[in-house]
Design goal:
Blueprint (H helix, E strand, L loop, with lengths): L1 H44 L4 H30 L8 H15 L6 E7 L7 H21 L4 E9 L2 E8 L6 H6 L7 H11 L5
Parallel strand pairs: 1-2
Antiparallel strand pairs: 2-3
Helix pairs in contact: 1-2, 3-4, 4-6
Length: 201
């Protein structure tokens, strides 16, 4: 009995460490990656286009302020109990709007549709589904070059399905086969979350 309790405690600690690593990836690491790209652009423009470089730096500073706020919110989330569930469609719509506003060029159009009778989900379940959706939307907005991104939520008696589609360039089959790119944890985190939910990805 003591060994079983010890093993359960170890598994709980490992699970918590994995959850924290996902939070760090979803906030701090992605924010820093975006900032590095912004600073690189400003550096490249500086010799020939100082005014544009200044504007790029201003944008990077604004992005840094947002990253601090997002990181602070993530830390607060880690220290608090899960909040009451909020409608999944509203959460994903808000993410799409934030991603569109953060893009310098014309962002893709985005819409969320819901089929079936909306249901209240267990907070932990909804949080995991939302974070899977958020990560996929980030990839679609930032890397696909899409003009349209759509999220469809289906509530069925025995099924909850979230489908996100875009008309972009797709993803390298080798990256999919390998489960992600070296040094990038987004796809790995998505798979881990889906596995924890016993969901089909």
């Amino acid at each position: 009995a003591e060994e079983a309790l010890f093993q359960a405690g170890v598994e709980e600690r490992v699970s918590e460490r994995i959850r924290i690593s996902r939070e760090v990836h979803d906030t701090v690491l992605q924010s820093f990656h975006g900032l590095i790209l912004r600073f690189q652009v400003a550096r490249d423009m500086l010799p020939d286009y100082p005014q544009e470089a200044m504007q790029a730096l201003d944008g990077a500073l604004s992005m840094a302020d947002e990253a601090i706020t997002e990181s602070r919110d993530a830390i607060q989330d880690l220290r608090s109990e899960p909040a009451e569930p909020v409608d999944l469609a509203h959460l994903l719509t808000a993410v799409g709007e934030e991603l569109a506003e953060s893009q310098d060029v014309d962002p893709p159009t985005f819409c969320v549709t819901v089929e079936g009778d909306r249901r209240t989900l267990v907070p932990v379940l909804q949080d995991e589904i939302y974070r899977i959706g958020r990560e996929i939307l980030k990839n679609a907005f930032r890397h696909s070059g899409a003009r349209h991104v759509d999220a469809e939520i289906l509530y069925d008696e025995k099924l909850l399905r979230l489908r996100i589609r875009d008309d972009g360039k797709g993803i390298d089959p080798q990256v999919l086969e390998n489960g992600g790119r070296a040094g990038h944890w987004g796809l790995i985190g998505i798979r881990e979350r889906a596995k924890r939910l016993a969901a089909q990805l």
